[in-house]
Design brief:
Layout: H1 2-24, H2 34-46, E1 51-54, E2 60-63, H3 76-82, E3 87-92, H4 94-107, H5 110-120, E4 127-131, E5 136-142, H6 146-159, E6 165-169, H7 172-177, H8 181-197, E7 208-212, H9 225-230, H10 233-245, E8 257-259, H11 261-268, H12 281-298
Parallel strand pairs: 3-5, 3-6, 6-7, 7-8
Antiparallel strand pairs: 1-2, 4-5
Helix pairs in contact: 2-12, 4-5, 4-12, 6-8, 8-10, 11-12
Length: 300
């Protein structure tokens, strides 16, 4: 059912947004420029993370002023239209939970978000919410280990209930409790293979799939001695290399669009985090806007 909705919504994207995206990419509309349009779309996708930060309180972000793609900073109303009737499934650790919070802050009124935050952040728990007026369903699955994610992907394949938007990410718990980059990479390869199996051979019907990169870790701010000992800069680099080597992202031939939380957290800087791992909401707001812009471009 989710795949039918996604296909239908793609047609709506084409009919309602084609004109605005052509202007957004500064391209003529004649058919013989289609190849140029496709190339420019890929170029803009590669530039989505070019963000500038204002180190104020709270921190603020904007796309680089030299950027020519003119990405959209989404309002709640426009985001609701893009995601209308969608099922959004996020699974992972606290970073995925913070992305879900940023998405709900965009889609809901502040007073509504304040009432649901305690349930969303109940320790080590799943969370789900439906926004009836928008037809949007959001599920968060607590999946701190990669084995939790592989099980989730198996369940999706068995039930054939496909989310319209799939957001996955893990690695922090593996780094802390297992501390073995090579083993992490082995499981990433399995996740990649299983995610690819969810895409129909035609490629015409598939979820928008996103992988959350690991945040920049500020070792001196980590709140336990075990974290400071195991979650070092060298270990973080080794885990990030596994993501690249295993080809998780589309740029590497994989099924996922990378939401580079590492790049965003480095841009926001050490003042954006109290515990060296979880960052100000502006980081995850930027990630959600990158996600929505990539969906717009990818739907063409």
């Amino acid at each position: 059912m989710g795949r039918w909705r996604l296909s239908r919504r793609k047609l709506l994207f084409l009919s309602l947004l084609c004109t605005s995206l052509l202007l957004f990419l500064h391209l003529p509309t004649s058919p013989h420029h289609f190849s140029s349009f496709s190339q420019s779309s890929s170029l803009c996708l590669s530039r989505l993370h070019r963000i500038s930060w204002t180190h104020s309180s709270p921190p603020a972000w904007s796309w680089d002023k030299s950027e020519t793609c003119h990405f959209r900073r989404f309002s709640g109303k426009y985001a609701s239209e893009i995601l209308r009737d969608a099922w959004i499934l996020a699974a992972g650790d606290s970073q995925a939970r913070l992305v879900v919070l940023a998405l709900l802050r965009l889609l809901m009124e502040p007073s509504e978000v304040s009432t649901i935050e305690p349930d969303l952040f109940r320790r080590h728990s799943d969370y789900q919410i439906t926004l009836p007026d928008k037809g949007i369903k959001v599920d968060f699955i607590w999946a701190p280990y990669e084995s939790n994610i592989t099980q989730l992907l198996r369940d999706i394949r068995l039930t054939r209930r496909y989310p319209d938007v799939l957001i996955l990410g893990s690695g922090l718990w593996h780094m802390l409790h297992i501390t073995n980059p090579a083993l992490y990479g082995t499981v990433l390869a399995e996740i990649k293979q299983m995610a690819e199996s969810l895409v129909e051979p035609s490629g015409s019907l598939h979820s928008h799939m996103f992988w959350l990169g690991l945040p920049k870790l500020i070792n001196s701010k980590l709140n336990t001695e075990e974290k400071k000992e195991k979650m070092t800069g060298n270990m973080l680099e080794a885990y990030n290399k596994e993501v690249n080597w295993r080809g998780m992202s589309k740029e590497s031939g994989g099924p996922f669009t990378l939401l580079d939380i590492g790049l965003l957290t480095r841009g926001c800087g050490p003042l954006c985090t109290l515990d060296g791992m979880h960052y100000d909401g502006a980081v995850y707001d930027a990630a959600v806007n990158i996600m929505l812009n990539s969906m717009l471009i990818d739907s063409q």
